Fold these 2 entries.
Entry 1:
Amino acid sequence: MIFFFGTRASNIGNFNIPNSKCDYCKQESTQRISVFGKYAHIFWIPIFPIGKKAVAECTHCKRTIAQNEFSPELKSLYKNYKGKTKRPFWHWLGLIIFGLLIAFITLIGITSEKDPRSDLLSADEKLMISNPTMESDSISYKIKKVFDIFTTEEIKPSEFKYLTKISGDKALILVQIPKLRKVEKKARAEALEMVEMVTDNQQILKGKDLYIGIKGLFSMMLIKTPTYEKNSKFALTSELYEFYGPKPESKK
Ligand SMILES: [Zn+2]
């Protein structure tokens, strides 16, 4: 039986005990105490130490005495030596790695400034609405028409939200499909095709760089920009930031 976590021990010190007599062979000064450092492990990676145990052995007759069978004399001798044993650092390996990880994450949090464009995108995502009109947002209105026709009731097209924003020679097209996660990855790509069915034929979008983001309930799952295209739960939302221009220089 193999356990993936539990305790193991490694030898961390050996002491020859002078003036001790072996109970078995009656030889003098033949006792040797070996100290083992116990540690918790997960998948054989030491995590942290959990106490020590000792065993005495007669170097002459090879009889061993477990720690719980030590004579009072041997016990007190062991006490004196126990403090001299030093654990190797790797008994703390798991805790050390964990500590470094925390420090690393903290450091990243301190050094990496938030891209201010993420706030701009979040603000625009909040502006998405489920019922764009021809007057307020004609492109979103037309995209909604397409989705209403081609989407099955199952993924609730009435809950979709839309926003189109044109700025200079760029256009941002956002669609939110709350149940997008439920759609198979292959079929998800069709959502992008439906958006492009509309955007490809709009005079107002001719020659503009399009930044299309299709969002699930929480995050972007389909993104297409002039330089990036991804159909994945892990699509990089930051690829849409380019719509707002280059990343502003950090001010000090
Ligand atoms: Zn002996």
Note: The chain has five helices and nine strands.
Entry 2:
Amino acid sequence: MTDTWTLFDRLADSYDQVIPFFAEFAAQMLDVIDPSHGMRLLDVGSGRGAIAAAAAARGYTVTAVDAAPRMVSHLAAAHPGIDVRLMDIHHLDLPGNCYDLATGGFVIHLVTTPAQVLTELRRVLRPTATIALTTPGPCEDHGRWNAFNEIWTEFAPRAAARPFPDHLDVSTCLHEAGFVDVRTIDIAVHLPVSDPQTCWDFHMSHGFAARVEALNPTDAAEFRRRSLAELTRMHQSGGIVLDRGATIHLATNPAS
Ligand SMILES: C[S@@+](CC[C@H](N)C(=O)[O-])C[C@H]1O[C@@H](n2cnc3c(N)ncnc32)[C@H](O)[C@@H]1O
């Protein structure tokens, strides 16, 4: 397993369970794509099924693949109607020319070789099929999260490693892989959070946990203490609201 799959395998029990954050983005993404009922959809890096489960509920025939065994077992157990497979998405063990739509929520920026993943997705997609990938994106939070972000900015340089790249130019990657009609749409979530501890637990239930774990134990404890103090201040002055944005990268597999 790569470090990424190991991380998500370890997080799988709590991933998207503290606050339905990724599920909210998935619902918005499916609203934007709005495909026809019955389409064959491949969801890559499916996690607990934020996109896959919502798509199945909307009537798509869904195949979901992820390389973290515990993500796969949770998804398969919760949604027996979805074809769930344990697979590295750099090497899709799936037939070519088969799917009408490929989705990937918050995964393309985490993989080792995005170009190889996109080449594989082109192979399994039918001509004129759509691809839709989300990555973290811009969000207007009216300065609400400035103080929390500043705490992280202070600690980040002391982290032993950067677990994930800071940025991936997904549009260029899609063009270079041969997709056409490449475009982006920004979406955002605005989720009230009941209390500071729940908000901290949310942060430690997804990829952000890897950043905190890259700090030495003393710094990690101090970052947690300062973060909870800031979250408590937010809670007492109007409430904690999770404002986050994502960019949907849409493209089409060419006709031939
Ligand atoms: C941030 S999570 C996103 C999960 C889900 N798409 C969502 O929106 O909630 C990233 C997922 O991609 C999976 N992943 C990362 N690299 C992968 C790879 N090379 N092959 C398959 N899955 C991978 C991880 O195991 C994890 O479940």
Note: The domain at 3-139+162-188+243-252 is CATH 3.40.50.150 (Rossmann fold).
